[in-house]
Amino acid sequence: MIFTQIGLVLALAIVFFAFEYRSYDKRVLNIVERQVEDIPEEIVPITDQTVKPPPPAPVVQTTVLQVVEDDVQVEDVKINVEVDQKTQIEVYVPPVREEEEVVEAEIFTVVESMPEYPGGPEEMMRFIAQNIKYPPIARESGIQGRVFVNFVVEPNGSVSNVKVLRGIGGGCDEEAIRVVQSMPKWTPGRQRGKAVRVSFNLPVRFTLQ
After folding, report:
1. What b-and-e string marks burial along 8-38, b requiring 16 or more CB atoms within 10 Å of the CB?
2. How many CB atoms lie within 10 A of CB 169?
3. Cβ contacts of 204 within 8 Å, gap of 6 or more
4. Host H or E run for residue 168
């Protein structure tokens, strides 16, 4: 049994050394000899720089002189030639132009002849009913009531300065302003026979059916 084990150990050792054995090819190195490589010299071509011709001379525009008659009066400008460094020169201050204040015409609330919609109040209510659109938000929320709108009838009959005095929300206020702004020209109000600006209040009713 001992000889068998020794034989197995020897066989494994031989197999191990057989796998680990390496062989290399023999090479002869000649250090003395050197090979000289003939590398041709690269010649860089010289770029030809062409001289650009000068640009053409600019065209000189001639100034046409207007002949002024002798009887034209020209303001005399006095120029003091005898001026040295110690002379104090007054700084020119341009004149200040006064801005014209735009004065708005007075807005009346009550006049001798009040503004009137063309065709009368009934025609105005018909115009509002035909042009007004019930806002979807107000319809869904069940909002209804009256929106009080204030505006100014100008002397030419146009409507301006439209604003809501009391609203109900839900988009009804904006719709009332839109309808009033789209109105045709009114018959302007008059005070002492003159067309003036008149403030006017108008209730716009929103009713769900």
Report:
1. eeeeeeeeeeeeeeeeeeeeeeeeeeeeeee
2. 14
3. 128, 132, 146, 147, 148, 149, 172, 176, 179, 180
4. none
Q: Where are the domains of the chain?
A: 114-206
Residue 196 CB-density burial (10 A; 0-12 exposed, 13-18 middle, 19+ buried):
buried
pLDDT tens per residue, range 47-69: 555 556 677 766 666 666 666 66
Answer yes or no: pTM beyond 0.70: no
- Are the CB atoms for 180 and 207 separated by under 8 Å? no
**Architecture of the domain spanning 114-206:** 2-Layer Sandwich (3.30)
Assign 3-state DSSP to the chain and report helix, strand, coil percentages, each to 5.
20, 20, 60
The H or E element that residue 129 is part of is helix 121-131
